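The following record pairs a protein chain with its ligand, pyridoxal-5'-phosphate.
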Amino acid sequence: ASTWANVPQGPPDAILGITEAFKADTASHKINLGVGAYRDNEGKPFVLNTVREAEKRVVGKKLDKEYAPITGLANFYTAAAELAYGSNSAPIKENRLAVSQTISGTGALRVGAEFLAKFLPSKKILLPTPSWANHKAVFSAAGLEVGQYRYYDKSTISLDFDGLKADLEQAAPGTAVLLHACAHNPTGVDPTKEQWQAIFNVVKERQLFPLFDMAYQGFASGDCDRDAYAVRYFVDNGLPVALNQSFAKNMGLYGERIGAFSIVCESPEEKARVDSQLKIIVRPLYSNPPIHGARIAAEILNDAQLKQQWLGEVKSMADRMIEMRSLLREKLENLGSKKDWSHVTSQIGMFCYTGLSPEQVDRLASEFSVYGTRDGRISICGINASNVDHLAKAIFAVSG
Ligand code: PLP
């Protein structure tokens, strides 16, 4: 018998499964709202102009292809940290931020998870319900115990703030809490500034450890500073946090795998110890990260003019998503839908949690060739001026 005769068949990845079904559909009006990648108004993948320009400059420099250091390119991760924490951030100025380039946001989460599994005494993390599906897999794989806290209330299609607070108040001191910094995936529901302040108070009082995941900086409001509000509020008010960053969405560098993981430390001496452990974690995982995307991101972030232009491109992507939300809601209302669709425009970022049931999502696919995930999540990026009418009609038909 084969050595692998006993290898069981694993389940397919839910989102990739949708892409397969979409590809197999021959209808010309089919729409894929499953993927979490930005599309332009023609439904095409989009490469930012600033990325094209930065790439041209990088190639023009005829740099070598030597290995990066274990924690990546310093001119990339320093600029990435400044984008997140702000250039006046105390931990950066005081040289007490441990930071490493990572294999995009997922790699940041995994490096962070390995660090917590080694050094957080509780070895326990709480995730919001629901959360990005890969979170649980990443933290479990690193050996952490994964629990949940309430986040989303199905009945109101909004934040279950009381549930969230109550669950964090119950958490044992020393437990890590994963917080989506902005543009919560999959719900598109973010806490308000006041709610963030209240979350900060609970996290501080209960002595929980805040781990932020910021995969969408700039994609929520269109403004990278505004989207960093929660992270900066926690840090500026004295709570040491850890942070996962991704440049997949806001630079459209999906396949380049560019991200960063950072931990706010108490002193430069502590930072040095944490840095040394990040290296020990990364070395046997992948030795060192890829250089090309990091060079592109560094070129953009370190050139004042190019950075300004990039911030404008981020805003235009966010604005297009906000516009598509309004258009979808307007079309649903114009069709005569009696349902309240205000959540379509009040939610934020790349995703909309429609409130549709799994059965209604199945009907969207089988009757209208519209593909989303069975939790009712649709990717706003997949909507454009040419397909929004069909989408609204389809959602209206299945939701009654
Ligand atoms: N975190 C969240 C909440 C996400 O939605 C994603 C991607 O969809 C990621 C992290 C990681 O993405 P990547 O590894 O492509 O940067």
